[in-house]
Amino acid sequence: MFDNLSDRLQGIFSGLRGKGRLTEDDINSAMREVRMAMLEADVNFKVVKQFVARTKERCLDAEVLDSLSPTQNVIKIVTDELTELLGRTDSKLVLSSRIPNVIMLVGLQGSGKTTAAAKLAYRLKQEGHSPLLAACDVYRPAAADQLETLGNEIGVRVFRGDGKDPVSIAKGGVQDAIDNLRDVVIVDTAGRLHVDEQMMEEAQAIKSAVKPDQILMVVDAMTGQDVVNVAAAFSERVDFDGVIMSKMDGDARGGGA
User: Fold this and answer.
1) Looking at residue 158, what DSSP letter applies?
2) Is the pTM of this model over 0.85?
3) I need a surface site. Which of 15, 27, 128, 244 has the fewest CB within 10 A?
4) E strand or H helix at 36, and its extent?
5) Quick one: 185 exposed, middle or buried, by C-beta within 10 A (0-12, 13-18, 19+)?
């Protein structure tokens, strides 16, 4: 997924290696190339602007330019900043001592929430947990049927409730988990084709009703630059704890990550 961006950066680094000593013009030229490479990889322009500004400032430091191997220092700085941007830590799903734990999935329609819910349930089951899936998407045709089919395939119960009120289904799912000694409830919520007020209000209502231990936002890797705006909107209203990026095996250019 990141192959094109990686190839472009390798090309930029190769050009720098051939120069030996570096000037400020060399750095400026390289940063322009980095900016273009990231934009072509569909990285949000605001993210690119901040990244290039930080990287350029560090690369223009006198100690870097006057060192014995300025090119190696510049490559290390760019690599370090990319690592910082994507995250240095290996984040794991940590469950609290509460029984049942409630994990709520949010995101736009088509992002892969329902499939992600089933995959998450399967993983938790493999780790020795007893998950329950709550089908709270009452709008998309056959959404609950899809979740139930996936649940049956992995041997995980799906709670559908009355099939009409998402908040009621979420609360009922938690109670069902308590009654049947299940230690994790995964709440699959409804999405829309774009961010709208009704979706956000519903997500907030479900959050208030079941007080999830974690809220995970599911993002389609092919969304590209707009993923930043979508994430900002969800962060403002439901304050999610982490992101599941779906369709990473597609031909997207990687900018969404």
Assistant:
1) E
2) no
3) 128
4) helix 24-40
5) buried
Record the tokens describing residue 3, joined without a space: 């192959």
The band of 228, judged by pLDDT with boundaries at 50, 70 and 90, is confident
Residues 95-130, buried b or exposed e (16+ Cβ, 10 A)? Answer: beeeebbbbbbbbbbebbbbbbbbebbbebeeeeeb
Return phi, psi of residue 132, to 5°.
Answer: -130, 135
- The ranges assigned to domains in the chain are 3-86, 101-246
- The tokens of 57 are what? 């400032």
Whether the predicted pLDDT of 64 surpasses 80: no
Q: Are 115 and 246 in contact, with CB atoms under 8 Å apart?
A: yes
Q: Report, at the CATH architecture level, how domain 3-86 is classified.
A: Up-down Bundle (1.20)
- Range list of β-strands (E), the chain: 101-106, 131-135, 158-159, 184-188, 214-220, 242-246
